[in-house]
Amino acid sequence: KNKLLTIRAAENVVRILPPLNVKKKEIDQALRVINKVCSEYKWMKHFVNLKDISAKDLRKILVDAKKRKNQRKKLNTLEADKGLPLKGKLLVQMFEKSSLRTRLSFYLAIKQLGGGTLTLRSNELHLGEGGESLEDTAKILSTYGDGFMLRTDSDQKIKNFKDYLSIPIINGLSPSSHPTQVLSDIFTVEE
Questions:
Q1: pLDDT digits (tens, 9 = 90+) for 16-37
Q2: Which of 58, 114, 143, 169 is deepest in the core (most CB within 10 A)?
Q3: In sequence order, what are the residues at sequence separation of 6 or more whose Cβ sits closer than 8 angstroms to the Cβ of residue 167?
Q4: Is residue 66 classed as helix, strand or coil in its secondary structure?
Q5: What sections of 42-178 are H helices per DSSP?
Q6: How many angstroms separate the CA atoms of 161 and 148, rounded?
Q7: Could you read off the pLDDT of 66-94 as tens digits, one per residue?
């Protein structure tokens, strides 16, 4: 009646906004941007275990990897892919178990896709000690990173991070699963 927009913001909170003078064209443009951003992230949230990902999505990953590998034939190791799909994105990696191949593979893959990596060691963090819970650590990682890769000897730690992170987690190795290695093995066999 008064041309005010009311929005229920929480159980006991209602926001009242004045009328907006927005053209349909501007709304359509905003919706296209929102749809594009959402579509980039909706098909997969975490990469913890292969059984949690549909065969269709695993096939998408393999097809994309083959396409990118073919496109990289004339590029050197540190040269980034055209289009830089991970430009401005940061993968935070934490290695509780030492690794050479996994560490280098993730570093080079993210660099080749235009992103950056930050490698942490668990002994450099509080992780449940000194007043900082794993949940607190996950919140901090989610604030600064766009993804988190964990190589650990604890399935429970993978589960806990998955529960608390608001960014995707990649299982770089746990006692029950090594999905990146298995997918890499499938890629190699198919080649």
A1: 555 566 666 766 665 666 555 5
A2: 169
A3: 141, 142, 145, 146, 147, 148
A4: helix
A5: 55-71, 101-112, 134-144, 155-164
A6: 9
A7: 999 999 999 999 899 988 999 999 999 99
Beta bridge partners of 171: 150
CA distances 24 to 19, 35, 38, 170, Å, are: 14, 16, 21, 40
Torsions phi, psi of 77, nearest 5?
-55, -45
State which amino acid sits at residue 187. F
> pTM score > 0.85 for this model?
no
| Cα–Cα distance for residue pair 145/142, rounded to 1 Å | 5
Q: Give CA–CA dist 160/155, Å, rounded.
A: 9
The predicted structure's pLDDT at residue 113: 94
Q: Where are the beta strands (DSSP E) in the chain?
A: 5-10, 13-17, 90-95, 116-121, 147-151, 169-173
39: left (phi over 0), alpha (psi -120 to 50) or beta: alpha
126, 137 in Cβ contact below 8 A?
yes
Tokens of 73: 């034939």
pLDDT-derived band at 53 (thresholds 50, 70, 90) equals: confident
